Every structure is written in C-alpha cells, then in structure tokens.
Amino acid sequence: MAEVEVWRGSVAAWECDAMGHLNVGFYVARSMEGLAGLAGELGMASVFAPAAVTTLMVREQHIRFLREARVNAPLAMTGGVLSLDETEARLLFVMRHASGELAASFQTLVTHATARDGRAFPWSDRLRARAEALKTEIPDGAAPRSIGLEPIETQASLGRAEQLGLTRTGLGVVLADHCDAFGRMRVEGFMQRLSDAIPHLFAAHGRPGQGGGRTNVGGAALEYRLIHHAWPRAGDRVELRSGVAGGDARVQRLVHWMLDPVSGRPWGSAQAISVALDLEARKIITLSDPELAEIRKGWIEGLGL
After folding, report:
1. DSSP letter, residue 187
2. Ordered DSSP codes for 247-282
3. Phi/psi class of residue 2: alpha, beta or left (left: φ > 0; alpha: ψ in -120 to 50)?
4. Strand partners, 204
C-alpha cells in the first residue's frame, strides 16, 4: 500500500461552526488542497493553475467524519489512488489527528478533462505508471458505512422538489469569488451551501433531540455523498431543496438538491447521515419512541439522490 502526505495544517477558530468543531465546508476545502497535492505527486503540478490546459474535475465525493476536529487541532492528510480507468480515477484522502487517529476519509471521483470545457480524455502512460506506484487501500473504519456508492440516475429537479414538498433551504447566486481558476463554482461551495441550509430544514421540521428536557442540543454529520451534475458559474442562481428520507432513533438520512431555479435542472445532489448531538457530553442522542414517532411525520420515504 502506498500513500503520500498531501496536506498539513490545523483548525482555526473561524472555521468552526456552532457545534464547536471544524465545519464540513472546510473539510471539503482541505480535501481540495489535498487533491492539488496528490496531482503534483502524479506529475500534474499545475492542473489547477489559471493557465492549465488540463485539469481534474471532481464528479463526486464520499466522506466519512470519524473523529471531530476542534480549535487548534493539528491535522495532516495523505492521498493515494484506489482505481483508474480510461479517463476517471477514484482517489482516497485520509485526514488524521496528530495522535494518528482518523479524523475523516474522502473518496473523490475525478475526471481527467480539458480545463476550459471539461471534455474528458485519456490519461498518459507516464501518469498511469505513477498512479500505479501510488495505489492504496481504504484503512479499517474508513470505508462507506451507511451510504452506497452505486451509480445513480438522479431524481433531482425543481418540479420533483415541488411535487414532494421539499423545503427550500437555500437561495442565492454564484459570485465571482466563489469560482475556481476556470470560472466554475469551487467544489467546496456545494458543501458550504449545504451547511448553511441545515438550520432551515430543522426550523421547518424540528431539530431531533430537543425534547426530553435536553437544553444543549446540536447535530453532526457522520457521512456524506455529494454528486456534481453540472457546474454553475458566476451569475448563475442556485436553490437548495432539502428533506429527510428516513432513519431511526440515532440517525437521520438527509437529502439535499442544489437546483437551477431558472431551468429546474440539478447542479448537484447530496445525501447525509446526521445525528443529534449532546453538546455538553459530546455524545450522540438516542431518541425516545415518542420523539421518533414525532419526527417520522416529516420523513419522505424514497427520497434519494
């Protein structure tokens, strides 16, 4: 198994959310720095530079959040190659605490593409040889657990969201400073908007765990799958629609669609495994039967990516 360090840093106070730990959007931002680092190790050091002819386009990510990272936590990330086909690669990034404990894992599916128009084309023999040298395996405890990675045909659209009664949890426009060197919305922008959307979902349906006399309740994501269907550019509008697809007394399965409110087509879709968190004990809350019965009323069975 081969892996190489691709990022090293720590958690700043302004990167933490109301739960007191590193916000999910910054996890994805770190993974993109890691992607640039791994690209350099593969001999593609300038693929994210403004003058690049070729690049790596992220098609989807699977993320496991394994141990929370709080203010000043030192972190490091390694990267490697899980698989490679004609034009795509599945890459693995593993974030660890200074103790060596796993903080998060990322499986990132990328396409080798022309930088300006995103047209896929084959890897070179030189790059294939380097990728073979960087082949790695998923560490114990870091593989997908509750979200599958099978190919999907998205059901996301504005019309479908209206039909299902999905809550509008976000609305805005992509600004120039939200975009990468090629004019596409940065990858972490999707997760950042999802993070902003969550309070609206719970405002509409109630936050799990707030009953039973509990006073300091928050939430956390354990796992995510994010799929990019198209890439908004500066000036494009985005709308978030969200719903709860099911769960049990400990977890809820949240679904988010990022849509173009003009055409109704999807920019992206995401599924998350979410838990209610006791912010004093830093433990997952198990809902009582009456609490579970109450939140079930807002679930949308069959809602998917």
Report:
1. H
2. E-SS-EEEEEEEE-TTT--EEEEEEEEEEEEETTTT
3. beta
4. none
